[in-house]
Amino acid sequence: MFYEITSACAGCAMCAKRCPADAITGERRAQHHIDPSRCKECGTCWRMCPRSAVLDPAGRRRPGKPQREMPRAVIDPAGCAGCCNCLLNCPFDAIGFKRRRFGRLLGLGRCFVDPALCRGCTACVSTCPTGAAGVTAEPGAAAPAAAEAAPAAPPGTAAKTRRRAG
Question: Is the pLDDT of residue 76 over 60?
Answer without folding.
Answer: yes
